[in-house]
Amino acid sequence: MEKQVHRVAVLPGDGIGPEVMTEAVRVLELVSALYEVNFEFDQKPVGGAAIDELGCPLPDVTLRSCENSDAILFGSVGGPKWENLPPDEQPERGALLPLRKHFGLFANLRPSVCFPSLVHASPIRGDLVEGGFDVLCVRELTGGIYFGEPKEIREVEKGRIAIDTMVYHQSEIERIAHVAFNAAMGRGKKLTSIDKANVLRNGILWRETVEAVAADYPEVELDHLYVDNAAMQLIRRPREFDVVLAPNLFGDILSDEMAMIAGSLGMLASSSLGRDKGDGLYFGMYEPSGGSAPDIAGQGVANPCAQILSAALMLRYSLGCIDAANAIDNSVRRAIDDGIRTADIFTGEQGTHQVGTTQMGDAILERIKSGA
Ligand code: IPM
Ligand code: MG
Fold first, then answer.
1. Atom of ligand 1 nearest to the CA of 96
2. What angle do CA 287, 288, 290 make, to 5 degrees?
3. What would the pLDDT profile of 6-63 be if each residue is shown by its tens digit?
4. Residue 68 φ/ψ, nearest 5 degrees
5. Do domains 1-106+269-372 and 123-262 have the same CATH topology?
6. How far is the CA of 297 from the centre of ligand 2 (A)?
7. Which CATH entry fits the domain spanning 123-262: 1.20.140.10, 1.10.760.10, 3.40.718.10, 3.30.1360.120?
8. CATH level 3 topology of 1-106+269-372
9. How far apart are CA 68 and CA 79, in angstroms?
10. Residues 121-154: tens digit of each pLDDT
11. Greater confidence, 14 or 265?
12. Residue 252 near ligand 1, beta carbon < 6 Å
């Protein structure tokens, strides 16, 4: 049988992006040799790299390549070199936000997983995370205060004022709530919805709408937390959460908190899903949660796991290659369980040893081969 060919736009970006992307592409090439899947990679510049090469953070060639692909595998963008550009020309705002908006990537899934064997890497007290935890943060990504209009700084009589507008349409809340409930159905069947209903009108509509959507998912246990309380509860009892649903800004903040509690940003993947392609698959963009880490870029020490796990999420949610996705997830976990550590997760524990980016990639490749 002819293997299906999936087109993947590969955007390594800045900082550690290119190094960790190299490992993710090696992993994908290996799974295409072992499983019923084939890729056509189209690598294009984005972020600071694109500013340097083509004069803007999201050039037309890059956007067109993404449009012609089944999914986008994204590295990371930004760095000190471009920090002094006007805000809208900077890599993050000029590439990431327009990509999200252009492709309607409204559902941001950020798994925050603390592997049992990495519990010591978490900065919170051992007894609170013993045995590890697995929380999925579902963040609304194309609405709310990030994109609401008016959005401006202007001169009034008493000086300058800044305005950002938080707007949610009920339909936007409904569609992200369905994503969160569906995710909960495939996991622990618990959903915690986050809002600020004690102050914001947005919070009231958010809560009412999520309650209404809950009627379609009677098996899911739903509760609500105000965002400030959620920030406390997540750090005090992370093991008790399953899926957390949040509006754009709150999800931005809480997903960073969860990433920190999990121990290392270098382990955390994320997916931003848009158009429903049917059969449970979506067009999506997949990226590590950790950012471009310019301080360690080019040294060969960055942790490639988040980029590799992002590739696995792409296989799962956009390409429907579940066997290959499982093989990657299992192999990353086995490499960690076997004591292999990049610098960010190395704490000198007995039975562990420190490796660089490429060796971590090698360790994962070996395990994919031996598990196939
Ligand atoms: C993220 C980042 C972005 C966001 C920034 C870089 C615009 O923090 O993906 O969480 O706020 O969404
Ligand atoms: Mg963020």
1. 7
2. 140
3. 999 999 999 999 999 999 999 999 999 999 899 999 999 999 999 999 999 999 999 9
4. -90, 10
5. yes
6. 20
7. 3.40.718.10
8. Isopropylmalate Dehydrogenase (3.40.718)
9. 28
10. 899 999 999 999 999 999 999 999 999 999 999 9
11. 14
12. yes
